[in-house]
């Protein structure tokens, strides 16, 4: 028996509905693929930013990667990516507190919220959130003119941050001298690549001033003898044979607490 006109119409309607559903499905698949691609690109960008925040010095204390691209003088204009803590947190005053490393190093510290308000505010905010607790001091230099311990990376190996970078450089010594006990912000090639990492000098340290320098955010007021006796005197494991004065401290060093008030 031949199909009726109504049956033909119903068949055509079903075909149109099926075709429409197929088009919707194909559109959704294309959108998911696009979203997956954008997400992958975003991950690459984040990883790139994390790598940029590392600081690279030569064994003689001068900048390596930073030399070619950093500005020759401290940055005048703030530049940031991500949600940077407000510079008002530091309140333009001196903050005091204690930085504990492992179970046997207690460093008295001061942060200068007047001369380095942005950097001080970042460290204060991160400390109050507990960001630094259980992070490692992953890097040490024991070169004749560069003696420092570097801490504060999110991943404990010099990579990772809190999701932001910031500038400008503040309170940079014009002569490139970072006296014993200086606390300064680490950064990458660009002046506005500061993030969570900082370094503490346990001996007078000279860094190439022509690269823009490093923000001096504070100083150690007590306990440096504990740092040298329990950590730095044990030496370091060189990163490479060609760079014998730069690498991880032999004594694994972890920030157990940082309190500021």
Q: Can you tag this structure with a few keywords?
A:
12 strands; globular; alpha+beta; disordered N terminus; about 25% strand; two-stranded antiparallel ribbon; about 260 residues; ten-stranded antiparallel sheet; 4 helices
Topology:
Layout: H1 5-52, H2 65-69, E1 94-101, E2 105-112, H3 117-129, E3 139-143, E4 146-151, E5 177-178, E6 182-185, E7 198-201, E8 205-206, E9 216-222, H4 224-230, E10 236-240, E11 243-249, E12 255-260
Antiparallel strand pairs: 1-2, 1-12, 2-9, 3-4, 3-11, 4-7, 5-8, 6-7, 6-9, 10-11
Structure description:
The protein has 261 residues and is an alpha+beta fold. Helix content is 28%, strand content 25%. The chain is globular. The relative contact order is 0.20. Mean pLDDT is 80; it is low at 1-8 and 17-75.
Strand order of the largest sheet: 10-11-3-4-7-6-9-2-1-12
Structural class by secondary-structure content? alpha+beta
H-E order? HHEEHEEEEEEEHEEE
Question: What is the gyration radius calculated from CA atoms?
Answer: 26 Å
Question: Which segments are poorly predicted (pLDDT under 50) over 5 or more consecutive residues?
Answer: 1-8, 17-75
Number of helical elements: 4
Report the end-to-end length measured between terminal Cα atoms: 93 Å
Helix content: 25-40%
> On the 0-100 scale, what is the average pLDDT?
80
| Main sheet record | 10 strands, antiparallel
Morphology call: globular
Task: Tell me how many strands there are.
Answer: 12
């Amino acid at each position: 028996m031949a199909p009726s006109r109504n049956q033909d119409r119903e068949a055509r309607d079903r075909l149109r509905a099926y075709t429409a559903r197929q088009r919707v499905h194909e559109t959704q698949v294309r959108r998911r693929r696009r979203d997956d691609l954008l997400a992958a690109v975003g991950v690459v960008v984040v990883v790139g930013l994390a790598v940029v925040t590392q600081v690279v010095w030569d064994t003689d204390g001068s900048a390596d990667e930073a030399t070619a691209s950093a500005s020759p003088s401290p940055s005048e204009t703030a530049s940031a990516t991500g949600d940077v803590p407000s510079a008002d947190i530091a309140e333009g005053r001196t903050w005091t507190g204690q930085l504990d490393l492992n179970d046997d190093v207690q460093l008295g510290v001061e942060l200068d919220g007047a001369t380095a308000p942005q950097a001080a505010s970042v460290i204060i905010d991160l400390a109050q959130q507990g960001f630094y607790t259980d992070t490692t001091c992953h890097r040490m230099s024991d070169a004749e003119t560069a003696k420092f311990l570097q801490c504060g990376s999110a991943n404990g190996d010099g990579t990772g941050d809190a999701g932001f970078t910031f500038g400008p450089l503040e309170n940079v010594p014009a002569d490139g001298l970072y006296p014993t006990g200086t606390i300064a912000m680490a950064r990458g090639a660009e002046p506005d690549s500061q993030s969570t990492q900082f370094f503490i000098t346990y001996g007078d340290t000279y860094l190439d001033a022509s690269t823009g320098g490093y923000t001096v955010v504070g100083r150690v007021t007590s306990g440096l003898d504990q740092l040298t006796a329990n950590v730095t005197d044990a030496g370091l494991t060189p990163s490479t044979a060609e760079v014998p004065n730069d690498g991880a401290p032999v004594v694994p060093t972890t920030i157990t607490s940082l309190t500021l008030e």
